[in-house]
Amino acid sequence: xxxxxxxxxxxxxxxxxxxxxxxxxxxxxxxxxxxxxxxxxxxxxxxxxxxxxxxxxxxxxxxxxxxxxxxxxxxxxxxxxxxxxxxxxxxxxxxxxxxxxxxxxxxxxxxxxxxxxxxxxxxxxxxxxxxxxxxxxxxxxxxxxxxxxxxxxxxxxxxxxxxxxxxxxxxxxxxxxxxxxxxxxxxxxxxxxxxxxxxxxxxxxxxxxxxxxxxxxxxxxxxxxxxxxxxxxxxxxxxxxxxxxxxxxxxxxxxxxxxxxxxxxxxxxxxxxxxxxxxxxxxxxxxxxxxxxxxxxxxxxxxxxxxxx
Amino acid sequence: xxxxxxxxxxxxxxxxxxxxxxxxxxxxxxxxxxxxxxxxxxxxxxxxxxxxxxxxxxxxxxxxxxxxxxxxxxxxxxxxxxxxxxxxxxxxxxxxxxxxxxxxxxxxxxxxxxxxxxxxxxxxxxxxxxxxxxxxxxxxxxxxxxxxxxxxxxxxxxxxxxxxxxxxxxxxxxxxxxxxxxxxxxxxxxxxxxxxxxxxxxxxxxxxxxxxxxxxxxxxxxxxxxxxxxxxxxxxxxxxxxxxxxxxxxxxxxxxxxxxxxxxxxxxxxxxxxxxxxxxxxxxxxxxxxxxxxxxxxxxxxxxxxxxxxxxxxxxxxxxxxxxxxxxxxxxxxxxxxxxxxxxxxxxxxxxxxxxxxxxxxxxxxxxxxxxxxxxxxxxxxxxxxxxxxxxxxxxxxxxxxxxxxxxxxxxxxxxxxxx
Lengths: 309, 420
Description:
By secondary structure, chain A is mostly helical. Chain A has helices spanning 2-14, 16-45, 65-72, 83-116, 121-135, 138-149, 154-162, 176-185, 187-199, 203-211, 216-244, 248-253, 261-270, 275-299. The longest helix of chain A has 34 residues, at 83-116. In chain B, helix 5 crosses helix 6 and helix 11 runs antiparallel to helix 14. Chain B is elongated.
């Protein structure tokens, strides 16, 4: 079998010490940090919520209790489905899709513009300006939006002074602040994949399309967007996953009546103290997001290898 | 054609302004609130220029502690994730082609897995290892710093790996082979050939890893234990009552970022300029320091100097400036305003009372007239409704409810008509 040969070759090439070190580092990362914790969480989510002394005891058996709870609600509840948690779950996913689309619409033009202008000082300054907000702490970015959208925030005060409104509008309750903040948080992750792809697009293609009389919109629809598809889907994937899994922005900017699914998970861990249930909810979130992303990638015929370019 | 171009240009300009307004506006607003005196961070109304929030920040024990923890965690994460990322990238170039796609998917996955999930899985996994090994609940496996470094490194290593892959694509394997042919050991070849080539990538990966670790919240919030990082402290402060000292911190971070970005830009610009002028590369990377030349055609450098001067003069001004008088004035003004408002409300109430009394006197004679005109309106409506009623018989039962309301109204109108 060629496995032994491959291993032999590998050590031949890297030497014993370096080769084993590389293997050890990758093993530690892939197995101990990535795979085992996920499996452990999966296993944990099928267990009863027990006090530490009873763990491993006779009561420590597998159960579907927590998944049932998510779908059906607490036993003996009024409605036959867990309307609250499922509602939050659905709303989170919908909002994540909404934020992703919004981000794509906002970011596509700027990515195109930056990629197609000649690399002058102006474009570089713009790129610099793009990166700076990304270096600021996520919490602080959310905080900034709270200052702007708060009841005595900038927008309300300005509109009151201009006489546009009589009473302050509660942007926080209406979730405007939340969507603005979430969209803001991941702009860069949408721009750069698209930018990278469009940058490699031959300008001649656009010129050719223009010479043949294609309109401005048609050039984008038929030439640029098909070419930029890997970048677009890569950006959308990242933004969607991060938005659905966001915790900071919903905690700070979310209205009192609207929860994010991650907040429910957080509550089971920190306030509810029911870790297995939190783990089960986290698994559901992870699996759903992965399924959505994979089906989207299949739909738009994009490969996994395109992500992260 | 030309008019369309102009239109597009205007559209583009407006879009750019809006976009960067959205991007930078919040940061600007937040920075400004750091200098305003109200104890809730706001920009309007502007009250007094004050530097006291920086004082509050500097004396905040929890924030300082958070910064300390963040630095420790950041250092650990940088070391761990740069090592793992580099190893991961090197293995990727050598791995059996059939395994390659699977391997790539696994190591890239942590970027896509929600941070919350990573934090939870790390916490659960090490907790169970701890139970399995029979350690007490305060062993190092439960230590917040240990867990946070592991949790963060899981996905930050993927970022690092992407940086390394990009660099490795330009690496000439022939170089290593030549070194090996000439009798270098594998470790020597690695140290003398590959590492120097990867050095810039290692630098940028380290910076990236540190920044990512410093600002991470989602993963850390599950793993920090007794060692809250700066981000965790900030989140708690923001969630439970905010004051402008957070804006002050934000301002400092923004200023540092701007500073770093400009310095980096200046350095690169300098290199480019020198290269364009035909200088050899060695002269560029050397640390020659010529002031007049280095400013020439280098807007980043000029901005940097202006920024530095601005910072120095601000710090100087902060020592001298005392907002006490202004704050007192504003407080006095506010008191007067409140009193005025109270007076106004009292006056309004009195007026309303008077009005009511007058109306009650007037009300008696005019009420008949009002009822008559109302009845007239209703009568017209009634006659129209009668014709409608026939039509309603044809409406499907779905609209029965609407029909009923209309009928009720019609009856009401008829009733009123009869009364008059």
